[in-house]
Amino acid sequence: MATSTGLATFYGGAPDGLDPYAPSFGTSDGSCGYGLLDKTVWPYWSVGALSRNNSFYKNGPIRGCGYCFEIQCLTNNGKYAGRCSADPNSRQVTIQITDDCPGCEADHIDLQALTFDKSVASRASVSQVQIRGKDSSWTNLNNIWGAVWELGWTPKQPLDVHIIQDDGQEVTAYGIIGKGGLTGKFPTGLQFKIGTNTTAPAVNPPKKDFGRCQSGWMLAGDASHPEGFCQQTCGRCAC
């Protein structure tokens, strides 16, 4: 069996502004003409889009449509090191081609978001988003779906934004939104760590401000803090 290496990306997820559990692109109206796919029957949305420069697309009688490929995530020390699943048996997935990818290079395949997640490293997801105005305290936003969070009112600007992942990592962007009515992207220079978070997040600013005193990692502590983190700040210190 011939094998080749290349790049895999995904479509239909948060970067596209889409819910990965809803049909899109190759699961709804892909170029292969399969139409709307039911994710409860084969191929269970394990599908991908093939580059128009790929040899199977260029030389095959049906431009690769219906072809099945085994995609395996490779562990290496390069740019994408640490992206594969820690379980060697969970690094491969079989997909069916249902669409083409006009912007992909010959060695590039675009997978449905849920399928892509099957073979890459377990990634934490955002569990809470909070916003704070100039004259207000931290307020939780409501998660409508996917990466969409909203609030029914707008605090006084400038606004601070606090994002919490379900693995305990937290980032805070201060004064990121300067005035009302602004839309679009707001660069923060902040980023979560990729891969499993094996160390406790920084405890500054005080986690009490964010209602994190009862978080699992705060209570568990580590080898240096067996009693837990922020005992005095959270009112648990017996000293």
UniProtKB/TrEMBL annotation:
<keyword id="KW-0472">Membrane</keyword>
<feature type="domain" description="Expansin-like EG45">
    <location>
        <begin position="29"/>
        <end position="132"/>
    </location>
</feature>
<dbReference type="Pfam" id="PF03330">
    <property type="entry name" value="DPBB_1"/>
</dbReference>
<feature type="domain" description="Expansin-like CBD">
    <location>
        <begin position="125"/>
        <end position="189"/>
    </location>
</feature>
<dbReference type="Pfam" id="PF01357">
    <property type="entry name" value="Expansin_C"/>
</dbReference>
<protein>
    <recommendedName>
        <fullName>Expansin-like EG45 domain-containing protein</fullName>
    </recommendedName>
</protein>
<comment type="similarity">
    <text>Belongs to the expansin family. Expansin A subfamily.</text>
</comment>
<dbReference type="InterPro" id="IPR036749">
    <property type="entry name" value="Expansin_CBD_sf"/>
</dbReference>
<dbReference type="InterPro" id="IPR002963">
    <property type="entry name" value="Expansin"/>
</dbReference>
<dbReference type="InterPro" id="IPR007117">
    <property type="entry name" value="Expansin_CBD"/>
</dbReference>
<dbReference type="GO" id="GO:0016020">
    <property type="term" value="C:membrane"/>
</dbReference>
<dbReference type="InterPro" id="IPR007112">
    <property type="entry name" value="Expansin/allergen_DPBB_dom"/>
</dbReference>
<dbReference type="GO" id="GO:0009664">
    <property type="term" value="P:plant-type cell wall organization"/>
</dbReference>
<dbReference type="InterPro" id="IPR009009">
    <property type="entry name" value="RlpA-like_DPBB"/>
</dbReference>
<keyword id="KW-0964">Secreted</keyword>
<keyword id="KW-0134">Cell wall</keyword>
<dbReference type="InterPro" id="IPR036908">
    <property type="entry name" value="RlpA-like_sf"/>
</dbReference>
